[in-house]
Amino acid sequence: MSTCQQCGTGNAPRKTNCTTCGTVLSLGTSELPADIGPLWRMRFDLIEKAGGPALPHRKRLRFFQNLRVMFNLWALLFGPFYYIAKGMWRKALTIFLPGLAMALLIGILAPDGELDFILRGVNSAMVALFTLHANVSYYRKIVLGNNGWW
Asked: What is the pLDDT of residue 40?
């Protein structure tokens, strides 16, 4: 039986949404696949402590716990390649393609490099999105079974 974090109602083990309030239910970390390591289990526990993937109770976490939920070094270094390696290619495309389109548009509008500061901002935004969303996106994929576009 899984208990809803929002309203406390007990639900059948295979339910994905609470029967009372409709909140998305998560699997307990004991029900995770065997190949998920202890670091990911700890991150998933912290995400659940923060209220699930929307992180409504993120302020309950201490600084370093918050950092473990919101920062992923491998996603910072490898961006879309990290997402693809983790099986989240749709999310990688969702972040990468708009950034690439904006970079190409800036290159067409200002081929002499007058708008390079905007290009650097677009690149920084893409890196930030990959870095800050990696752990929660992987939680959605593994725990909630949601491997959608966003």
From this structure: 93
